[in-house]
Amino acid sequence: MDDPQTRYWLIKAILLVALLFIAWVIVRPVRSQGHLALRRVVMVGTIVFAMFAVMFPGLLNRVAWRLGVDRGINLLVYVLVLALFAQIATAYRRDSTAEKRLTGLARAVALDTVRDPGREGGPDAGSGEETDPDPGAGAGSGQPPDPV
Question: Residues annotated as region Disordered (predicted)?
Fold first, then answer.
């Protein structure tokens, strides 16, 4: 088991499973905000792992050796690359959700401000004066406005 090619099977399997999980996170529909909590836990875990690697490099080397990686710094780089891909995946999901919301808002505004094609100038065409939605209330009628 001293051959590096046979020792790397464990870390290859771990990295492939992690990358498949990240790909699944990208394509699955989000039903709740629980993914935000999971993202925070993973981020804190990655930071703790990096701090652990800085404080105890010898122990990190032993963990890396058990996983089939030559040095601890390589293991740290693998974990940070996975964290980068996870961040990219969450940013992609967040951007696509924001884009869908913005598209919905733009459509709603467009539908609310659409003009009737039968009239040339819109609803007030030809009158030359503004119309008050409640002509009985207001400053010129002598009555106080209705409470809302």
Answer: 113-148
